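Hey,
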Amino acid sequence: MPTAVNRTMSPQEWGLLLTLSLIWGSSFLWVGLALHALPPLTIVLCRVGLAAATLWAVLVVLREPLAPLLAAWRPLLIMGLLNNAIPFFLIAWGQVHIASGLASILNATTPFFAVVVADRLTHDERMTPLRLLGVLVGLVGVVVMIGAAALESFSADVLGQLAIIGAALCYAVSSVFGWRFRGLGLSPLATATGQVTASSLLLLPAVALVDRPWTLPMPGTGVTLAVVTLAVVATALAYILYFRILSTAGATNLMLVTFLVPVGAILWGTLFLDERLEPNHFAGMACIALGLAAIDGRPLRWLHGLLPAGRRERPQ
């Protein structure tokens, strides 16, 4: 029987979530660099194809059993479509038309969709007013942190914006669908391997028909390194962490990573591009922290425990 989903994340799960946000925080940069020389579909196929090769190599070295992986090919195909092929393409295509900062804001709508989808399709992650408030406060924090400049182009290309929102919806649905892997006997490594393998197989015919990558000029060293980093670090390693968190913390908690990804992107810029944090970044991070606290519920329960017994009301 699958283990119950944790409503409140443990310190270890929070650590994994923060690590995942740092890894995914760099993905918009790698995609943007790759778009200088490659079309979106080809970038996505290279991303999942190289990630699949990396994960299969790890599976072989660790001698993980393959029977459960092969038996789960149907749900893995669905997961590869919803969690890789469609959203990866929509984000890459969207970044052709809109700024990456705006894309980050729109991608941060994922937890809102996750709360709604989980409430409608599951029995163990019901939406409460406090959780919904936390999602909205966190989204405000992302907008504040990115800054008003990114919003100036909000109406410049509606299709690009809708593409990112569509990707966010796919991520939310796939996170709820991914719960079924808890009962299939697959490790996070095996699930991640099967997912990117399935998405590679799904994308291969489309790339061959649309992009015909063998006719494209050979990309330079910078683009090649960006694609390899995107595949090995921001996809292969990231999805091992993703399924590890999903298996214990649940879909709604996992989707909090989309609030933290812009934070990770700013930290990467500060460390390696000599960018300086502005006051709006700190204000946005404060809002994000409040939103996370509301959704997690632990600080509220701690404060509730300090109240005299006669004044306590059950927190939602």
